[in-house]
Amino acid sequence: MNSRAITWTAATVLLVAISAVLAQPDNRSSGDDVAGNSVAPAGERLPTDLSYLGARSCASTTCHGSVRPDLKNDGRMRRDEYLVWLEEDPHQGAHATLSEPRSLTIFENLGLMQDGSVVEDQSQRFIEVKQKCQACHSTVVQPAGVAARTGRRSVIEGVTCEACHGPAEKWLARHYRTDFAAYTTDEKIALGFNNTNSTEARAQLCTGCHVGSAGREVNHDWIAAGHPAMKFELTSYLAQMPRHWKSSRDRLNASNPESHELELWLAGQKHAAERSLAQLAHRAGNQNGVWPEFTEADCYSCHHDLGPPISWRQDRGFGSQPRSQAIGRVTMPVNEWYLFMLAELASRDGAGEAASQFADNYRQLRNSMESSIVPAADDIARLAAATGLALRQWSAAEDIGAPQLLELVRQAPEGRLVSNWDRAVQAYLMLRVMEGEQAGPEAKRIRRLLAFPSDRQRRFDSPRKFVGVLQSQDSEVTIREEIGEQLLQLEQAIRAARDN
Amino acid sequence: MQSQKSILICGLVLGLLCAVGHDCLAQPPLTLKLDYQGVDRCLFCHQAPQDNVREDVLKFVTLKEMDVWMADDKHYRALSNITDTDLGKQMCRTLGIDVNNIATATQCVSCHSNPHWVNNHRTISVDPRRPNLQTGVTCESCHGPSSIWDPMHTKSAVWRAASPDDKQGLGMLDVRNPVTRARMCYSCHIGDASEGKVVTHEMYAAGHPPLPSVELETFSHAMPAHWRSVADKPDFEGREQFLEVNSLRIGESERLRNVILGAAVAYQSSMKLVADQLRTEDGRDVWPQLSSFDCYACHHDLALPGWRQARGYPGRPGRPQLNYWPSTLVELGASRLRDARRAAIGDLAEPLGNLQAALDRRPFGDPTVIGGIAADVVEKLEALIAELGELQFGGSDADQMLAELCQLAQSPTIDYESARQIGWAFQVILQDSSYAESPTVSTLLDGLSHQLKLQLPAGQAAAGDKPRIVIELPAALKAASNYEPADFRDRMLQMSELLVK
């Protein structure tokens, strides 16, 4: 048996395992077993039969609802966590979002609502669909036949404390006791108390909704109906989230406090990639699912206006795909958002064997995805699972740090990191993490160039001007070339700062 | 039956040979093999100036047909549009086609030239004194291979009395019959997989201009016509017999007939294109043939608010649908049939609904299901076309049809090309209606024509310039992307109010 055969066997075993994990919540979301059941965002390891008590159970002024936060930089809690969440954290409004006009438009586009009311013969489907929304937009799923306001409070409270920290039924009365600190992580998890301390655990937690996991999926049907497309990157999302914990805790929990942000970036990349590969394996392997699933392709491979006079996409070229490939069938370049940086990292000169294995698997997956508009689902399911496994093996085998990442930027052939918007944004976010607190002029300039164009009438969601000539002076330099240049300068600045 | 027909044809050939007499000695040796001779043969007669032409001949043909074709008809430049333009060369590069050896690129020349001629002769004239003479869409591309009928068709008395079926047996296509003509035109303008005429999405992606929707009468006149209708030829020799053998009914509206039958054939051709591709395993591998789908289902910028959402679309969000326009006008014909006749054909809306359901069920649908529905539609339309062929159009038909077009326009799912179908049909039918002289209708129609670019670009560009299609492309794309369905519906609502008055 050669090594490839071994990989395949392993992949098949893994696929079975993934299917098993994925199958369970599917039953749940189909409405068979919905009443009172919780969907724990941390997901996989928590007990599933515990009750959620609601955010107010945390809100006592002597616990997490104090109006006088303790901001001393000493690792203890702030005491105003509930209020930070309630007043500033977008997760708090996650469920309310479902009642906003833009969400009602989604229900209308899906044929479930009209003029703000549920279409008469669609009420059952509406409940099922709304439960799918609540899998991410709420902490628990609203039981069928129970109104959101009269039902369990946590439904309308959005993504609450317990969504991340775990259902409090068994730990609420223990976790403030002094002996709780002595519990092991596993003991806490057995009580439903999630580990949110390690970067790995956080990355896994966030990506469960923000990338997708069993029973939580934003596919092209949703996006076509009006849901925003999913483009998650852990460090930038965390930077947007108001912290209800002390930053000092982040460093305390990192294996190396100096490179805490970089660790977070890497964990975000790996977990997002793993989640997205598992999701792809599930999408391709699910006989009753939607296939081809268009979110697996680059949005702009199809979505561009046709002229006039020449569409921006023609003007730009076909990004990652060389023009000569159009000789065969036109296919859709894959959505690179979650895997590009890791694949580059794994393919760099000097990468180890496990990295090469992952790079090789991903290349095969990618080629298969781009071989046809409707790629062979069985092959894709297999390859996606194999790539996920290889990623985990690489992850366990090799430590990645700043030197490797800087080298990646330096080694990249000209134009490679900026050949499409997704790549440029990911490369920028990676360097930005290494740059530290203060953004230098390069980072500011890149950020401005990457911003979507906008005008007063319309909010463009296409990076249409990503490739154009710079507006300034008489230069012939394109925006893309300029971003590439600035990325290199940023890399040099970081290197210089590290050397000092 | 078949042999009887062969005997008949042989008899006709022999008879004509005798009739041709010594004229035929001046021509190359006649062969009984159907073959394409190229346009050189036609140039002898159908190009001005002509000396010593009997006056009677000019009562039937203008003998300037080739002048029109070479000076104004875009078909003439069909091949040079590929070989002599930047766009054509760029497309060839992208698609891996050797532009200097275009004759071997069957996927191009099947429509951009006379494929059979190219096939039989394998060379293309590069004589600089007569550029492209042999190369574009030529006389024989439409009129059929002329090796047999060429020497015969000049003997007017015998030839005019021959039936279209007999002529067709000798290779000459009956272009006076709207169904035959539409099938011939649409084999390229919509596509025919069985003849290798398919504009693939790869070609579009490489830069091929989008195929617009077609309306038989409008497009025929925009070529421009190098012929006169029989009604405009009142006194040629043997006219009565000619009318009879060609089943031409003077007094009835030829235009209405062309619109109605052309629309039914357009729908059938588009469904046949789908069905043909899905008939075989290989074909199913080609599915989804994206060029059969609505371009704008996918091709729209992602913007909020976006025109696509505002415009609306049938079917489930995120599931591309097939091109809408081909079925737009089919009801206009079907509603002319008496109830019983109509019922015999079966429900035409049902397969459309099934098609949408199949495409909603999974992206691009199950090829087997789609192919089955498409084949079913082709069959139903065959029956419809036969029934419509029996109808006579005239009297109040035109007024009635204009009112029906106004109603069709109110459907919420009329896209740009469907709206053009309605617009073109309206323009044509109006001429036979009691509103033909109405200045208010005419003013409203002008606005519609502007919105939908109903006026087709006329003529070729000057030699050496960009081809017309390339010049017009930006404006064409702009009109399509600026299309406002609500505005169109509003105009047609105003129109219907005018018609009531």
Provide structural commentary.
The complex is a heterodimer of chains A (500) and B (501). With 500 residues, chain A is mainly alpha-helical. In chain A, 49% of the residues lie in helices and 1% in strands. Chain A has helices at 3-29, 81-88, 101-109, 123-137, 153-156, 161-165, 185-190, 199-210, 220-225, 234-240, 247-253, 260-285, 299-302, 312-316, 340-347, 353-369, 377-397, 402-411, 421-435, 441-450, 479-499; strands at residues 113-114, 117-118, 459-460. The relative contact order of chain A is 0.09. Chain B is mainly alpha-helical. Chain B has 2 domains: 33-143, no CATH class; 242-499, no CATH class. In chain B, 54% of the residues lie in helices and 0% in strands. Chain B is built from 28 helices and 1 strand. In chain B, helix 12 (178-189) packs across helix 16, helix 16 (254-278) packs antiparallel against helix 23 and helix 22 packs antiparallel against helix 23 (367-390). Chain B is globular, with a radius of gyration of 24 Å. Chains A and B meet through helix 9 and strand 3 of A and helix 13, helix 18, strand 1 and helix 27 of B. Strand 3 (459-460) of chain A pairs antiparallel with strand 1 (303-304) of chain B, so a sheet runs across the interface.
Write the layout of secondary structure elements.
The complex is a heterodimer of chains A (500) and B (501).
Chain A: H1 3-29, H2 81-88, H3 101-109, E1 113-114, E2 117-118, H4 123-137, H5 153-156, H6 161-165, H7 185-190, H8 199-210, H9 220-225, H10 234-240, H11 247-253, H12 260-285, H13 299-302, H14 312-316, H15 340-347, H16 353-369, H17 377-397, H18 402-411, H19 421-435, H20 441-450, E3 459-460, H21 479-499
Helix pairs in contact in A: 1-12, 1-17, 8-12, 12-17, 15-16, 16-17, 18-19, 19-20, 19-21, 20-21
Chain B: H1 2-20, H2 40-43, H3 55-58, H4 65-71, H5 80-83, H6 86-95, H7 106-112, H8 115-121, H9 139-143, H10 156-161, H11 164-169, H12 178-189, H13 201-206, H14 216-222, H15 239-245, H16 254-278, H17 281-286, H18 295-298, E1 303-304, H19 307-311, H20 330-334, H21 339-345, H22 349-361, H23 367-390, H24 397-408, H25 416-430, H26 439-452, H27 468-482, H28 485-500
